[in-house]
Amino acid sequence: MRIGVLCGGRSSEREVSLKSGARIIAAIKTLGHEAIHLDPCDIDISMLNLYQLDKVFIALHGGIGESGHIQSLLDILQIPYVGCGLLSSAVSLNKLKTKEVWLANNLLTAPWVLIRKAMTQQEILACCQNITFPVVIKPLNQGCSIGVTKADNEEQLWHALLAAFEYDAEVLVEQFIAGREYTCAVLNDKALPVVQICSESFFDWSAKFGTQSATYHCPSDLNADEESAMQASALSAYQALGCRGWGRVDVILTENNDIYLIEMNTIPGMTERSVYPMAAAQAGFSYEELISELLDQAQFDHI
């Protein structure tokens, strides 16, 4: 097949996307297919049909890759692509809409308030009066923990909001949930082994990609019952959002064994350090087998 790999782009996650794309392209070539590197920064993506592609592997993290825009274009062009469709992509990228869907489906997620850049200081304080410190501040439409900060007091909150507003005009202030961090990958409606995330400091962008102080463990420290419960919760979160193909759900497990849903990732990282291929390997998939499995399920939505 002739497969286009969309990676790079203009989002704040460009560098990670390029690394994911390079590894995916190598795997596609190993599988015997032709792989075409497609960076929206270099080409007119509205002309994708000129490349005569059989399928597209979207490896654009954040931005138009996860917002539903690329998915909509490929639906119009009737080119099968890996992963979620327009609606589930758009909802999953928006942290507010994601939490609203989870809440409507009786799934546990941290309490939050929405803060807008146009609000006055008094309006922000009024919104936050029912949220107690510590809190986590998150831009509404960013991934890879970009712009995410933990605040232990009001002074830190203002600094964190200013930093988050650099990425988005709307920001969530979320109650900090203490506990152990995990992530659960889903492949074609089946939860993969859970990956444990260990970080000496708050698990932000630096811990992931800067100092890389975070470590990932698969198998995790969960017993069989805990693992099954977390997989079931992640799968419910994935299905509630209407996801398909693949995805990764980040969660926190409290001391009371409550599973809090944190975030939905519809285009997980696929680099050498990424946790999705780590979970797939624990389930018995080589990297190339994982790519093949994803390509087999590629589809577009009829409009």
Describe this structure in words.
This protein has 11 helices and 13 strands. Helix 1 packs across helix 11. A hairpin with a 2-residue loop joins strand 8 (180-187) and strand 9 (190-191). It is globular. Strands 8, 9, 10, 11, 12 and 13 form a 6-stranded antiparallel sheet that branches. A 4-stranded antiparallel sheet has the order 4-7-5-6, covered by helices on one side. With 303 residues, the protein is of the alpha+beta class. The mean pLDDT is 93. The longest helix is centred in the first third of the chain and has 17 residues, at 14-30.
Main traits of this protein?
single chain, alpha+beta, six-stranded antiparallel β-sheet, four-stranded antiparallel β-sheet, 35% helix
Task: Give the topology.
Blueprint: E1 2-6, H1 14-30, E2 34-38, E3 55-58, H2 63-66, H3 69-77, H4 86-93, H5 95-104, E4 112-116, H6 121-127, E5 135-139, E6 149-151, H7 154-164, E7 170-175, E8 180-187, E9 190-191, E10 195-198, H8 205-210, E11 215-217, H9 224-240, E12 246-253, E13 259-265, H10 275-282, H11 287-296
Parallel strand pairs: 1-2, 1-3
Antiparallel strand pairs: 4-7, 5-6, 5-7, 8-9, 8-10, 8-12, 10-11, 12-13
Helix pairs in contact: 1-11
- Rg over CA atoms, rounded to whole Å, is 19 Å
The general outline is globular
The CA-CA distance between the termini, in Å, is 24 Å
Share in β-strands: 15-25%
Low-confidence spans? none
Structural class estimated from helices and strands: alpha+beta
- Count of alpha and pi helical runs: 11
User: Biggest β-sheet: count, sense, barrel?
Assistant: 6 strands, antiparallel
